[in-house]
UniProtKB/TrEMBL annotation:
Name of this protein: Outer membrane beta-barrel porin/alpha-amylase
UniProt KW keywords: Signal
Signal peptide positions (record): 1-18
């Protein structure tokens, strides 16, 4: 009986969340309550400043405290200066405060916040609290699921601080508005027969930012493909490309590979 219950729980989780597991943005839905998710993100980004590529590594742990609240701890390593070094870390929390569920669709909204610490030298005007800047971010995200299609968008305010040992340049603005739009679709399977079936999701994400001091902005596009294996393992492959930008960013185009595994019912 326990395995039958687990089967229906996992199938319902996949069918409603599979398309919402975006690569570079976070939907309004949370990880399942009581679960622990371990993720390792890797990136190879072109560095126009030195005409080379920067390799980044970001281990993360996410805990679903309950159905409405999840928290995440992340760390950031890169080889921007003399081998692989710890560049920074961040703490993230998301609270889902609104949910309307139907048989084959749902709409959800959540509030989120992030605190980041970083010790890297600041070489760019854009504010990146996931590996480049110290600071805080607060925002709202809304996600709509309609059968196999998920649409998600968020808006947030970010403020940068001085990095540990590196002052924030006076020439740049510490304040920015971030905005994203993501669309994901379940491509395979057409019909569920087992929770062990591999899911294949295709998605595209738009990620933008406007600097409040001068109104400069940028917009990136991130097409991606995602595999969910045996209901617990996840593989993301994505490519990020700047569509336009007036913000100085020597690091903007690159590829991503993320590996994740979720342990269900860890804290129940």
């Amino acid at each position: 009986m326990r395995y039958i219950v687990l089967f229906f729980f996992v199938c319902s989780t996949i069918s409603t969340y599979a398309q919402e597991l975006f690569v570079v943005t976070e939907p309004a839905s949370n990880v399942p309550a009581g679960s622990l998710s371990v993720r390792v993100g890797q990136s190879l980004i072109k560095n126009d400043l030195k005409d080379n590529h920067i390799y980044g590594l970001s281990p993360e742990v996410t805990w679903g405290i309950n159905k409405s609240l999840m928290v995440r701890a992340s760390s950031y390593f890169d080889n921007a200066a003399n081998g692989m070094n710890l560049a920074g870390a961040s703490a993230y929390a998301k609270y889902r405060f609104y949910s309307v569920d139907d048989l084959q669709s749902h709409f959800r909204m959540a509030a989120f916040g992030r605190y980041s610490w970083n010790k890297s030298a600041i070489h760019q005007e854009s504010i990146d609290l996931m590996g480049k800047n110290s600071g805080i971010e607060v925002g709202l995200v809304a996600t709509q699921l309609i059968k196999k299609l998920a649409l998600s968008s968020n808006v947030s305010y970010g403020r940068a601080f001085d990095n540990d040992g590196n002052d924030f340049p006076e020439l740049y603005s510490k304040d920015a508005i971030n905005y994203t739009f993501s669309a994901g679709r379940l491509m395979y399977p057409n019909r569920y027969k087992s929770y062990k079936q591999t899911n294949i999701n295709a998605m595209v994400e738009l990620v933008g930012q406007t600097i409040l001091k001068n109104g400069r902005s940028y917009m990136d596009i991130v097409p991606a493909v995602q595999f969910i294996i045996n209901s617990q393992a996840r593989i993301d492959v994505a490519y990020q490309k700047q569509l336009y930008g007036s913000v100085y960013r020597p690091v903007k185009d690159g590829v991503f590979l993320k590996l994740e595994y979720t342990f269900f019912n860890v804290t129940k």
